[in-house]
Amino acid sequence: MKSVIFDTDIGIDDAMALLFLHRAEGVRIAAITTRFGNASVEDTTRNALAVAEQFGIDAPVYRGAAGPLAQRLGEGFPEHVHGKNGLGNIRLNAPSSRPRPLSAHEAIVDLADMLDEKLSIIAVGGLTNVALALELEPALCERIADLIVMGGAFGYNGHRGNVSPVAEANIASDPLAADIVFRSGIPTTVVGLDVTHEVELGEKAVDRLAEDAGSVGRFIKESSKHYFEFHRSITGNYACPLHDACAVAYCLRPDLFQTIAQSVRVVTDGIAIGQTIHGDNLREYVSDAWDELPENTICTAVDSQAVLDLFLSTLASRR
Ligand code: RIB
Ligand code: CA
Fold first, then answer.
1. Each residue of 252-284: pLDDT tens digit?
2. Residue 294 and residue 126: Cα distance in Å, rounded?
3. Ligand nearest to the CA of 77
4. Ligand 1, CB within 6 Å, residue ranges
5. Distance between CA atoms of 156 and 176, rounded to whole angstroms?
6. To which CATH superfamily is domain 2-315 assigned?
7. What is the pTM of this model?
């Protein structure tokens, strides 16, 4: 049984991913840690508590970072994408539970210390909490089995940035944190837009989910309407990419992805702020910025249909 911390800026696709993880076999959600991103950390923490309560996810919630370590691209929150409340403006019962007293990064260190088996972290909203946890406990690298990051874009399959021509939203929300984490030595897999934009939830599939997955399916259909409309405004297609669910799919079935192993650096200022750039360990460059760094696993291709089928069948399964 794999113990997983779900680190999130719970927004619409985060909630889909959390419910996907909750219904999956062979994994236990040890904690939900929140941060700013799709909404304020107040709203993402409320959303995490409300979704966990409404759907019986027995995991403590820890409130995390309200802002980046240093600078980020842009300011405020993407209401046009995730709605004012971060969940497509749907009405959710106010949670009766509260976040635990520890902050998110303290909880990550505590849980990694307490649990006898190694922890996995699925980070789908930027890496501030993980960077703060590393600062608090540098030995964290030895206690984390793997870190799976939804974030970044390297240009594979023609996919570049979504908040600039070269930057992806999660990484651009705290570029310094991401650069620290990618260089830390934690075994890290980067699930970027290169593959997440290859996995789309369409209208027929979300209607089927509403039929087959009970209250979870109906919630996903209702909360994702705002997200579908946003993506239609860009692509003309009434569908949405399963960004965060792809990180969960990698945790469950890494064999559905093709990967390379290269060191990753992040641009932390200037017009390319938030860009993820991987090195090439077969080349000698003038720049030494990628030298002597641990390699990260980077997803370059995906069996899109298999990931979509896994997402739909897992959510429709009763647990
Ligand atoms: O760029 C996509 C990512 O940004 C997803 O995690 C989405 O939830 C937003 O956080
Ligand atoms: Ca997210």
1. 999 999 999 999 999 999 999 999 999 999 999
2. 20
3. 1
4. 9, 11, 13-14, 37-38, 124-125, 150, 162, 168-170, 243-244
5. 23
6. Ribonucleoside hydrolase-like (3.90.245.10)
7. 0.97
